[in-house]
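Morning!

As promised:
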Amino acid sequence: MEQIREMADKLKLLSDNTRLTILSLLKDREFCVCELVEILEVSQPAVSQHLRKLKSQGVVKESKRGQWVYYSLNVADKPYIKAVLDLTPDSQTILSALNKQHLTSVCK
Amino acid sequence: MEQIREMADKLKLLSDNTRLTILSLLKDREFCVCELVEILEVSQPAVSQHLRKLKSQGVVKESKRGQWVYYSLNVADKPYIKAVLDLTPDSQTILSALNKQHLTSVCK
DNA sequence: GTGATATATAAGCGAATGATTATATGATAT
DNA sequence: ATATCATATAATCATTCGCTTATATATCAC
């Protein structure tokens, strides 16, 4: 069952706390890497590597603007991922829970 | 975000090919361990260990009858798991693909 | 009882995972 | 050109994962 194997692979992307949080944030709007670092309280390389995984499987897309790289969701054609993200807390809830409501849109 | 962490943990259960196949089969009816061994072509201990994980997180429940242990889904209260399993191939499709349509209901 | 079948558990192992630190690349500002 | 900020990559490491083999437990048939 190749179909199941592929679903399992994609679901593996969602089964990490940091990545699932990133994807849930991206439901609302695009974020640049430095914002995610500030919100998630993990190192910049860790965030970067998670985003690379997500991008390599086509779940997010990137958009470079100036020195920043903005990431956004790319799940229009991935129903099982959408189905999960529909049930995930929204960005407001996440930011409040982490006391990170007040981000400077530009990092430093 | 404890809620996200818990979802990620549960999704980890679905992100393995063998477990996702087991859960997809269980959408149709309960299966005993020896049937799953026959279908999945992995060792009996491997199946048993997957089922233990699924049971320990409340995703399946077991029912011992005679020398057999039957497992069935227990996802009524787990919307994100249901959402994924709704999009998974059904047992007929899986069994056909694996050429395992003709199981003896009792194993040996 | 003995033997056969069904299932579970334990131990061990190689591979994958997610993190960190250090370094490289690239854009911006002065 | 130099310094600073944003991001990516590489190397390393501890942990987790899924499998196998070996063994234990439990039920059934005789």
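Chain B touches chain A at residues 1, 3-5, 7-9, 11-12, 14-17, 19-21, 24, 79-80, 83-84, 86-89, 93-94, 97-98 (CB under 8 Å).

Hope this helps with the figure draft.
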